[in-house]
Write a structure and sequence with these properties.
Rossmann fold, about 350 residues, globular, Glycosyl transferase, glycosyltransferase activity, 2 domains, transferase, 12 helices, alpha/beta, six-stranded parallel sheet
Amino acid sequence: MNIDFIVPGSIAQLTGGYIYDSNIIDGLQTLGFNVKIVELPGLFPFVDEEAKNAALRCSLDCPTIIDGLALPAFISHPRQKYLALIHHPLCKENGLDESQQKLLFDIEQKMLQNAHHIIVTSHFTREELKKLYATAHHDISVVCPGNTPKSILPYIDTPQKIELLCVANVCQRKGHDILLKALQNLGDFSWHLTCVGNLQRDPSTVRHVQDLIAKFQLESRVTLTGELSEQELQKKYAKAHVFVLASYYEGYGMALTEAINYGLPVVSTTGGAIPHVLGESALLVTPGNPQELAAALSKVISSPQARSDLRDKALQKRQELPSWMDSSTEFKQIIQKEYNVVF
């Protein structure tokens, strides 16, 4: 069976959404689908003419999955039978002014009304769509991200210095500024923070983060690595004692479950789907609150017992995480049901 899977730009981008798409595509191909990846050129989500024209060239003749970030390009498409894959609502992105939020809200609402079916990556996002878009589908399928099994790395918890790891592209929603404001108050502890993630996607936020590092005199304590290969990233996980992510909002939080998969203690926020995904397996604080985050980090940095307790919870939680083949099989079943095909 032929399927078109439409994404905005290159699918090789290292964000949770693209990693999800890539793994689902691999799984569907293993399950017998012939998947054609359509990488739309242009700008997203505030689409330009290049993106709109590229969308108009898509026939939508065969079963088609459109990544939610690409949906605005299809607002004028004459044929609109597709599966919409929503990682999180576009209007929930941080840094948008009121007019931008309304524009994305209106576009997404129309595109979801027109979709043949909607797939989301968390139960939280399904409920969020129902609240936001009252006229959108009430039948929304959930296919959570899968996980690649990780070897439990040796965890030596008698460090002279606590290694903190954050894996997230440096953009406003990920809360790097809040993390730095929290850490500036923990100068009496011995710690080092490594931030792995893209430094080109949001230049203004990167400059702000760099300015805060200089302002708080944290140059020797904070390292921004940019994107890393999978092999290099694994080395960072092997060195880390605590994983921390200060996101304002997550539609799922794949970086968090990856850290859980490695058996790392996790400190994060209650932003979006995070508490629904992690439950009691992590130490969570209010998003955007550096004082709460500082208190949580102080606890795990100063207390081997606190780290041990969180590690035990992570090791228990990792047993519950689905595989990518589990997720791809769920995706396959939705396609078969919605397009009434069996093979």
